[in-house]
Design brief:
Blueprint: H1 26-40, E1 45-50, H2 56-66, E2 71-76, H3 83-93, H4 106-119, E3 123-128, H5 136-146, E4 157-162, H6 165-171, H7 176-179, E5 182-188, H8 193-207, E6 214-215, H9 217-227, H10 231-248, E7 252-253, H11 255-280, H12 282-323
Parallel strand pairs: 1-4, 1-5, 2-3, 3-4, 6-7
Length: 334
């Protein structure tokens, strides 16, 4: 809607990952370096985590684009699948025909595929995005795949990408066999204020047709306060700011325009941030609730004990006082 007004060839703040708009903050570059290192070193399991919208998927795409033709990659997103469905999907991604194999022979067929690739000097990499959504039986299937190896090397390298819940899953007792195999892991943090500012200018530059949009400095503060450096929220905020400026017919983005646009978004954002805060600190809330309950129980028992003591010790003393009658004076009339 506002592209023609600002002379943009397309919307620069679409939410869909687009390699043309790739911008790597310092944490994204570090995550990319960890991925490359893990693959070159032949590590079996690699994990990359980060909050929703922080840029994990686009970093993964940049990693895949950097690989040479000696690496075969299968990328699986949204893996809400049974173990059998996952294996079938992996076969399709690697273009392995599974029709001639029964369930028991699928692993043997995959092992043969991996050995064939190894003999031809190729690596095989399996990337699973949104890995925190994996079911337990599917995770067990992944563990079985990771066991396919020679005496010297892993035949399959597995990269798990997910939200912080993935780290909690891998640290659990039930998944310790996989968690202990994670040799390379990295957590992507949101962009800093300066990185967020550069991110906005970068996307506008890619979409522009030679014109430059002018911004007041306060605009970036409003956007960063709303987004806390998460690229997806930066996109949402910038799209709203440009739309609001277009509605007023102003080509210079002012702080008041940004403030008005952010106010319209802030209610939804605050709700999302509160939900994220509660989820991330769930264990702390439970611990605090237990402590408060324990203190209330102790206070109640103390009060109950005190009342019982008053009954047995203080009350009789009061009775004794009331039972003491004044002395009777006898006057002799004789």
């Amino acid at each position: 809607m506002y592209q023609k007004f600002f002379r943009l060839k397309e919307n620069p703040f679409k939410l869909a990952p687009n390699p043309d708009y790739l911008f790597l903050g310092s944490d994204h570059e570090e995550a990319l370096a960890h991925l490359k290192y893990g693959i070159w070193q032949g590590e079996g399991f690699i994990s990359i985590t980060g909050k929703q919208g922080v840029g994990k998927t686009i970093t993964c795409m940049a990693f895949i684009a950097s690989l040479d033709d000696k690496t075969e990659v299968a990328y699986i997103s949204n893996p809400i699948l049974s173990s059998k469905q996952l294996l079938s999907k992996i076969f399709r991604k690697f273009k392995i025909s599974s029709t001639k194999y029964n369930d028991k022979n699928l692993l043997n067929a995959f092992y043969s595929f991996l050995m064939e690739k190894r003999l031809s000097g190729k690596r095989v990499v399996l990337i699973i995005d949104d890995a925190e959504k994996l079911e337990r039986d599917t995770i067990e299937q992944i563990r079985l795949l990771s066991n396919l190896e020679t005496n010297r090397d892993k035949l399959l390298q597995i990269i798990l990408i997910g939200q912080p819940e993935l780290t909690k899953m891998l640290k659990s007792y039930e998944l310790r066999q996989i968690g202990q195999r994670i040799s390379v892991n990295y957590h992507i943090n949101p962009l800093t204020f300066l990185e967020a500012k550069d991110y906005i200018f970068h996307r506008l530059h890619v979409a522009s047709q030679g014109t430059r949009i002018e911004f007041d400095q306060s605009v970036f503060r409003h956007i960063f306060r709303y987004s806390v450096g998460i690229p997806r929220l930066i996109n949402i905020a910038c799209d709203k700011v440009l739309l609001t400026s277009y509605r007023y017919g102003q080509k210079r983005i002012t702080g008041n325009i940004a403030k008005e646009a952010i106010i319209e978004l802030s209610g939804k954002a605050d709700g999302v941030r509160w939900i994220d805060f509660i989820v991330e600190n769930q264990s702390k809330f439970i611990m605090a609730g237990c402590c408060i309950s324990l203190l209330l129980i102790i206070a109640y028992l103390a009060k109950l004990t005190g009342s019982t003591a008053d009954y047995y010790f203080k009350k009789p003393k009061k009775l004794m006082i009331f039972q003491q009658e004044p002395p009777i004076l006898f006057e002799s009339g004789y």
